[in-house]
Design a protein that fits this description.
11 helices; globular; ABC transporter involved in vitamin B12 uptake, BtuC; single chain; mainly alpha
C-alpha cells in the first residue's frame, strides 16, 4: 500500500515536472538555446496564483489563467531582451543574457514579494477518494486532469493550427522556414511566450501541491525542468514530458529507502546514469519539435 501511495505521489509530481519540461523543450526548440530564466518564470506563475487566491479569492481555473498570462508576458519580455536581437549571433550571448535576466527577476521578486516563504490556501482541504486500499486526494486528481488536458490541447495546436506548424518548422530549420514565408522572429516570440505560459501553470500546480511559494524557489525548479527535458530528449516535447514523469516517480520511490533530503540527489543521479548510456536522452533525436 505504501509503495502504491508513493507511486501515485510520484506520478502527480512527475506530471508537474512533465508540464515544465514541455514548456522548456518548446522554448529550446524554437530558439535553439537552453534558458536559465525558466525557474523564475515558474516562480512568477506560482506567486500569481498565491495573490489570486489570497487577495481576489478566485477559483483554480482563473488562477491558472492569470498564471499563464503573467508568465507568458514575462516570456515576451525575456524574448525581447535575451533572444530577439541575438538570433543570428553566437549562442553564448543569449545564454549569458538569460543568466543575467534570471538574477534580475529573482532579486526583483524578493523586493516585490518579500523574502519569506508564503503559505498557500488549501482550496480542497484534505478531501480524497478511496480506491480499495489507495487514497487519492482531490488535488492530485486535479493535477492529473489539468496536465492531460493541456497536453492534448498542445498536441492539437502543433498538428492542426498554422501557428503550431510554423513553430515546428522553425524548430527544424530556421532558415528554410524563413524561405517559405514563416516570420521567424514572431514565431520564436510566440513559442517562447507559450512555453513560459505553460511554466506559469506548472508554477500554480507546484504551489498548490507543496502548499507554499518562495521567491528563491526558481533555482531548483529550473534545474528540474532542464533535467526532465534533457532526460527525455531536449528536441522532443513528448519525450521531455516522459522525462519529467520518470524523475518524479524516481524521486518518490527513492525516498522510501533514503532520506527525503536526498530527493534531488536521486533525481540528478538517475539523470547522469541515463545520459552516460544515451547522451541524447531517452527519446531524443536530432530534428524537430516532435509529439
Amino acid at each position: 500500500m505504501y509503495i502504491l501511495e508513493q507511486l501515485i505521489n510520484g506520478v502527480c509530481q512527475g506530471v508537474i515536472y512533465a508540464l515544465m519540461a514541455i514548456g522548456y523543450s518548446l522554448i529550446a526548440g524554437v530558439t535553439g538555446l537552453v534558458t536559465f530564466t525558466y525557474g523564475e518564470v515558474v516562480m512568477v506563475g506560482a506567486f500569481t496564483s498565491y495573490y489570486c487566491f489570497s487577495l481576489l479569492g478566485v477559483s483554480i481555473i482563473p488562477a491558472m489563467l492569470f498564471g499563464f498570462v503573467a508568465a507568458g508576458i514575462l516570456g515576451i519580455v525575456i524574448h525581447k531582451v535575451c533572444y530577439e536581437r541575438f538570433l543570428d549571433s553566437p549562442k553564448y550571448i543569449s545564454l549569458i543574457c538569460t543568466i543575467g535576466m534570471s538574477m534580475l527577476i529573482r532579486n526583483l521578486a524578493q523586493i516585490v514579494f518579500g523574502t519569506e516563504t508564503k503559505g498557500m490556501p488549501k482550496i480542497f482541504g484534505n478531501g480524497f477518494i478511496e480506491l480499495g486500499l489507495i487514497r487519492i486526494s482531490y488535488l492530485q486528481i486535479l493535477i492529473l486532469g489539468v496536465v492531460i488536458v493541456l497536453s492534448l490541447t498542445l498536441t492539437f495546436f502543433f498538428v492542426k493550427t498554422k501557428s503550431g506548424m510554423a513553430l515546428r518548422s522553425v524548430s527544424q530549420d530556421r532558415k528554410a522556414a524563413a524561405f517559405v514565408g514563416v516570420n521567424v522572429r514572431s514565431t520564436t516570440l510566440i513559442g517562447n511566450s507559450i512555453g513560459c505560459g505553460l511554466g506559469g501553470i506548472a508554477g500554480v500546480l507546484l504551489a498548490l501541491y507543496y502548499s507554499n511559494v518562495s521567491p528563491i524557489m526558481g533555482g531548483t525548479i529550473g534545474l528540474k525542468a532542464f533535467s526532465s527535458a534533457v532526460l527525455g530528449g531536449l528536441d522532443n516535447v513528448a519525450g521531455a514530458a516522459g522525462g519529467g514523469l520518470l524523475i518524479g516517480v524516481c524521486e518518490n520511490l527513492g525516498i522510501m529507502f533514503m532520506s527525503t533530503g536526498l530527493r534531488d540527489v536521486i533525481a540528478f543521479t538517475f539523470l547522469i546514469i541515463v545520459l552516460l548510456v544515451k547522451p541524447q536522452g531517452l527519446f531524443g533525436r536530432k530534428g524537430v519539435i516532435k509529439l
